């Protein structure tokens, strides 16, 4: 069992959990993910690692309650436990293994969409700790869905953080792509690498724009996974015409080479079945999801 | 005892095909005492028992069968336990027809002795009567790490523990057992009833099993040896990434690898309503491939309520699956579209599979595997309507360990290079066996490799 030390809501249906997982904390690097399972009957859920403390042996994860298993996770409190936490999985961000001198010569632009703010955070934190220049754009639906503003401000400084909301309820109004255009085209800021993490549709449009801007872009893919160790092939996607596995080859890929349309279609795979399980969970045995009434 | 035809096996009771096609309960019900004794009486107790030479772990087959004849099932189970840590598993999933039973002298004129069913009977009797393996005599105070808790790892760990080594198994998944829990379905190998107790027996020998622990990620082999004091490591990490055909449409919704489909059902129990992991229940499923994994996927899809076609590019004779599995699949109503090969997967406007375009094949000259090579019949393409496609084409090795272990040699197919005799790899103190070395094979071959490596590790550590 893996003990939960802290648990709390960051926004509606988005919660942050700090869990004891020394085997993960000991080895994980920014860009990697882990898999949790709440109890015997839950799904294995892949989640990006949002922060880690090697000394304390803890990792921080951020989860949005979407299906039955994630809803159950969102209800956990400090003192509860996960049946399983396994990781770190996937490849760390490229810059971790590159020559620090080379990395320091670059300027990074991070684009975080919604929950994508969580996996962006450890990468930004690592780069800042290593003296690399970083700007961060966070895009979210509304002020109420914004997460980790304070942590990110502390990491990069207010003047390097650009927040935009779909409904204009906080800071800038509009899509992240508008902010990228503004920074690059209007303000003339220069970047060497863009890292975009968020909904696939956002990453697709960011890549469309950064390609025009000739700004190399890394995206982090979060397809459906089961084992997460390269056994099942559920997370396959097409990159540069080749079948790749997000769990062992990724999750970071060259955004210009990813087949987003194919990847987005695959995300729809369990919509119905997953939705059914959620209804069952919320409404109990009275709703089996096959009455057709909804 | 009623008269029996000595030329024929005592028939084993099975669930009715019509009934079992709708449930996940075990197909084969096994022998009872009377049937086992009758079958045991068919053994000629050969002076030079060829069956033993056909067994990858060299179980003393005539000896345990004699004990069944005598009614001393405990003794029978002890004889098997000397060679095998997983007899209830092997009695169920070994390809006996090409191993022990394939060599049985009885098989020359009639049917061979049903060695597999007798092994199963003995192992089940031992479990039901609380017989536990003997714990080792003297501790050697030497630590050995085993990576992977599948058949190779469990066997290697069990043998080493019996020799007195301090063994820790590292398992990446949340449950121990490897392919025995994620791959082979419940109706062929019950998890709680058969697999779990055999793993418990390995634990009872003193083996520690750490689940949720990924070697190559949480820790590397180098760290295990340098920081944690393990003097030898056995890699039994299994087969790896599923292969696809690289035909158009494979990314469509409703296309699974057999590994994914089986993992969802077996490990995650998607077929049970109260488990969260979903699986799409197709109306018509096409399984591509002809091995045991293809049969498992096909029969699982059938039990989820689908009509199932197995599409295989060679003829029935070349099907690599065990004869018993093919026979069971047919009885249950699975349709075989033989000498047929997919060329494209067709999908609807939402990206869901709506069919598969296939082409007829004919057999040409034998290829390097000795099997006649299938060649396309020009102009013979046609479509099979379906909503689910399961690709059961084998696997390619997982790079997790080979890419993180210094000095570990891999071959062209990216399998770990290891000596068949003793499991030695290019790296001192590191041994390997099972699918990680051979590519996808059988449970018993992996066990044989685990056994050989345990011997190799013992020799290595004794001479150090």
How would you describe what is shown here?
The complex is a heterodimer of chains A (294) and B (464). Chain A has helices spanning 22-25, 68-74, 94-97, 100-104, 117-129, 149-156, 176-186, 200-212, 246-249, 260-267, 271-283, and strands spanning 2-11, 14-20, 33-37, 45-53, 58-64, 81-82, 84-89, 107-113, 133-140, 161-165, 172-173, 193-197, 217-220, 236-239, 242-245, 252-254. With 294 residues, chain A is of the alpha/beta class. Chain A starts with a strand and ends in an 11-residue tail after the last helix. Residues 284-294 of chain A have low confidence and may be disordered. Chain A folds into 3 domains: 2-89, Elongation Factor Tu (Ef-tu), domain 3 (Beta Barrel), CATH 2.40.30; 102-213, Rossmann fold (3-Layer(aba) Sandwich); 221-294, no CATH class. Chain A has 11 helices and 16 strands. Chain B is an alpha/beta fold and 464 residues long. Chain B has helices at 17-20, 33-40, 50-53, 61-70, 73-83, 87-93, 100-103, 106-109, 115-128, 151-163, 179-182, 191-204, 221-226, 258-266, 292-303, 323-331, 399-402, 435-438, 443-462; strands spanning 13-14, 28-30, 143-147, 166-170, 208-210, 232-235, 241-242, 255-257, 284-288, 307-311, 335-337, 340-347, 353-366, 372-376, 382-385, 388-391, 395-396, 430-432. In chain B, strands 5-4-3-6-18 form a 5-stranded parallel β-sheet. In chain B, a hairpin with a 5-residue loop joins strand 13 and strand 14 (372-376). Chain A binds chain B through residues 23-24, 26-27, 37, 41-44, 67-69, 83-89, 226-227, 229-234, 236-238, 243, 245, 248, 259, 262, 265-266, 268-270, 273-274, 276-277, 281, and chain B through 172-174, 182, 211-214, 217-219, 238-242, 244, 246, 250-254, 256-257, 259-260, 263-264, 267-269, 274-280, 350-351, 398-400.
């Amino acid at each position: 069992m893996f003990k939960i030390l802290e648990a709390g809501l960051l926004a509606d249906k988005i919660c942050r959990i700090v869990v004891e997982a020394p085997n993960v904390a000991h080895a994980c690097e920014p860009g990697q993910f882990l898999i949790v399972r709440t109890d015997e009957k839950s799904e294995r859920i892949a989640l990006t690692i949002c922060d880690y403390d090697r000394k304390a042996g803890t990792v921080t994860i951020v989860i949005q309650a979407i299906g039955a298993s994630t809803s159950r996770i969102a209800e956990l409190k400090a003192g509860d436990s996960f049946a399983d936490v396994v990781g770190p999985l996937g490849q760390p961000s490229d810059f971790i293994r590159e020559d620090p001198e080379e990395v320091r010569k670059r300027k990074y632009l991070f684009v975080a969409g919604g929950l994508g703010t969580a996996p962006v955070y450890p990468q930004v934190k690592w780069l800042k700790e290593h003296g690399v220049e970083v700007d961060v754009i966070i895009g979210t639906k509304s002020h109420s869905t914004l997460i980790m503003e304070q942590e990110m401000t502390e990491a990069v400084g207010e003047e390097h953080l650009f927040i935009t909301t779909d409904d204009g309820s906080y800071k800038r109004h509009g899509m992240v792509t508008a902010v990228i255009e503004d920074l690059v085209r209007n303000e003339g800021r220069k970047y060497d690498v863009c890292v975009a993490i968020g909904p696939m549709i956002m990453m697709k449009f960011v890549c469309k724009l950064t390609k025009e801007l000739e700004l190399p872009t890394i995206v982090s893919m979060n397809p459906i996974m089961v084992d997460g160790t390269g056994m099942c092939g559920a997370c396959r996607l097409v990159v540069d015409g080749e079948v790749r596995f997000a769990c062992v080859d990724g999750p970071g890929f060259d955004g210009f080479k990813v087949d987003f349309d194919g990847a987005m279609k695959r995300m729809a795979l369990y919509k119905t079945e997953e939705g059914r399980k959620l209804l069952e969970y919320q409404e109990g045995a009275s709703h089996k999801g096959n009455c057709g009434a909804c | 005892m009623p008269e029996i035809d000595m030329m024929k096996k005592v028939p084993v009771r099975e669930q009715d095909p019509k009934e079992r096609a709708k449930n996940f309960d075990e197909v084969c019900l096994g022998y009872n005492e009377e049937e086992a004794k009758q079958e045991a009486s068919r053994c000629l107790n050969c002076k030079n028992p060829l069956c033993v030479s056909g067994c990858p772990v060299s179980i003393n087959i005539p000896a345990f069968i004699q004990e069944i004849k005598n009614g001393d099932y405990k003794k029978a189970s002890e004889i098997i336990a000397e060679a095998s840590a997983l007899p209830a598993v092997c009695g169920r999933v070994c390809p006996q027809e090409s191993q022990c039973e394939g060599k049985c002298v009885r098989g020359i004129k009639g049917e061979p002795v049903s060695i597999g069913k007798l092994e199963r009977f003995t192992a089940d009797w031992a479990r039901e009567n609380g017989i536990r393996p003997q714990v080792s005599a003297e501790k050697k105070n030497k630590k050995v790490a085993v990576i992977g808790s599948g058949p190779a790892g469990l066997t290697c760990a069990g043998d080493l523990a019996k020799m007195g080594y301090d063994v820790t198994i590292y398992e990446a998944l949340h449950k121990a057992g490897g392919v025995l829990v994620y791959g082979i379905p419940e109706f062929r190998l019950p998890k709680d009833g058969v697999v779990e107790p055999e793993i418990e027996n390995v634990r009872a020998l003193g083996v520690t099993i750490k689940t949720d622990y990924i070697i190559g990620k949480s820790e590397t082999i180098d760290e295990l040896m340098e920081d944690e004091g393990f003097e030898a490591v056995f890699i039994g990490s299994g087969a790896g990434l599923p292969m696809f055909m690289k035909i158009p449409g494979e990314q469509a919704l409703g296309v699974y690898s057999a590994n994914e489909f089986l993992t969802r059902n077996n490990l995650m129990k998607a077929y049970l309503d109260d488990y969260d992991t979903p699986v799409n229940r197709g109306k018509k499923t096409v399984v591509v491939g002809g091995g045991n994994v293809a049969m498992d996927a096909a029969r699982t899809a059938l039990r989820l309520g689908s009509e199932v076609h197995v599409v295989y590019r060679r003829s029935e004779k070349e099907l690599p699956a065990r004869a018993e599995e093919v026979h069971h699949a047919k009885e249950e109503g699975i349709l075989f579209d033989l000498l047929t090969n997919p060329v494209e997967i067709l999908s609807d406007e939402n990206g869901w599979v709506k069919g598969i375009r296939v082409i007829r094949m004919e057999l040409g000259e034998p290829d390097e595997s000795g099997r006649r090579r299938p060649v396309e019949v020009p102009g013979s393409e046609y479509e099979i309507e379906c909503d689910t496609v399961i690709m059961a084409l084998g696997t390619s090795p997982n790079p997790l360990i080979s890419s993180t272990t210094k000095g570990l040699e891999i071959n062209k197919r990216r399998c770990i290079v290891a000596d068949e005799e003793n499991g030695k790899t290019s790296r001192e103190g590191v041994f390997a066996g099972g699918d990680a070395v051979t590519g996808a094979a059988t449970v018993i071959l992996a066990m044989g490799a685990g056994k050989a490596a345990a011997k190799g590790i013992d020799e290595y550590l004794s001479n150090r």
